[in-house]
Amino acid sequence: MSFWEYLGSRRERLFFETWQHASMVFQTVLVALVLGVLIGVAVYRSARLSAFATSAAGVFFTVPSLALLGLLITPLGLGVAPSVVALTLYSLLPIVRNTIVGLAGVDRTLVDAARGIGMTRAAILLRIELPLAWPVILTGARVSTQLAMGIGAIAAYVNGPGLGEQIFAGLARLGGANAINMTLAGTLGIVLLALLFDGCFMLIGRLTTPRGIRV
Q1: What pLDDT sits at residue 215?
Q2: Which H, E and C letters describe 21-69, residue by residue?
Q3: For all residues of the chain together, what is the average pLDDT?
Q4: pTM of the full predicted structure?
């Protein structure tokens, strides 16, 4: 069976697994974005706290993905839960780091001027610092998305959803019928999703970043 014939015969299943993969990555990056921005906002004014938060988020990068997923089986079982938790943890570092860098890089004269006209600390954060730091934060989210997209394939190790099932099944059947087709379908699906998500982030960046900042 050729690759195109395989795609045609498994069309519905592949669409379903592609949707699962996209949904899992979207949810984990969204959760990581909320958590990462909150952590960054909480620590960016302190060099020590910023270093600690970045180091703590970076610890998860030292844990191999298969090992982390395996460790999560005991408390969370198999399936969606360990997959989502693992991807969220891996997605935190770029967002936390970029949030801290973006907020710390805001021109202090603008902050002082806003404080001088009577703006509260919360108003300065929401109306000046976060909008100016947003392009940097969004870049961190793009990096996290690409990481989650690739690592998400390994979630099949714990019966997680997505295209990783195609890859793992194909690798387990190397030499057998359709093994290459299965592995190639899963891999190309993830690549196409990664490109689609990145294009969406570029569009979001253009729509949400003030024109003066873009220039």
Answers
A1: 44
A2: HHHHHHHHHHHHHHHHHHHHHHHCCCHHHHHHHHHHHHHHHHCCHHHHH
A3: 88
A4: 0.88
CB 178 within 8 A of CB 97: no
Report the distance separating Cα 136 and Cα 97, nearest Å.
Answer: 10
* Rounded-to-integer distance, Cα 191 and Cα 150, Å: 9
Q: How far is C-alpha 163 from the chain's CA centre?
A: 16
Kindly give, in sequence order, each residue whose CB lies less than 8 Å from that of residue 68, ignoring residues fewer than 6 positions away.
60, 86, 89, 90
Helices (H), the chain: 3-9, 11-43, 47-59, 65-76, 80-104, 108-116, 121-124, 130-151, 164-172, 179-208, 211-214
* CA–CA dist 76, 69 (Å, integer): 10
Are residues 192 and 17 in contact, defined by beta-carbon separation less than 8 angstroms? Answer: no
The model's pLDDT over 36-48, given as tens digits with 9 standing for 90+, comes to 999 999 999 888 9
Whole-number Å distance between alpha carbons of 42 and 191: 35
Which of residues 9 and 147 earns the better pLDDT score?
147
Spatial contact of 90 and 58, defined as CB atoms under 8 Å apart: no
Share of the chain above pLDDT 90, in %: 44
Only one residue has tokens 């990068």, namely: 61
Answer whether 98's CB lies under 8 Å from 130's CB. no
